[in-house]
Amino acid sequence: xxxxxxxxxxxxxxxxxxxxxxxxxxxxxxxxxxxxxxxxxxxxxxxxxxxxxxxxx
Length: 57
Known about the structure:
Elements: H1 3-26, H2 29-56
Helix pairs in contact: 1-2
């Protein structure tokens, strides 16, 4: 997993989690869903990069 992609994946996960939790606390369902989507995108990026690493080895 390239370092820059790993950082992007973790950053997306952290940002998504933060947005999701803040929106949940405020009762904003739309923003909460956007945060969850961002978090999921970060997790998907991480899985993709790990799969690419496994194919190289």
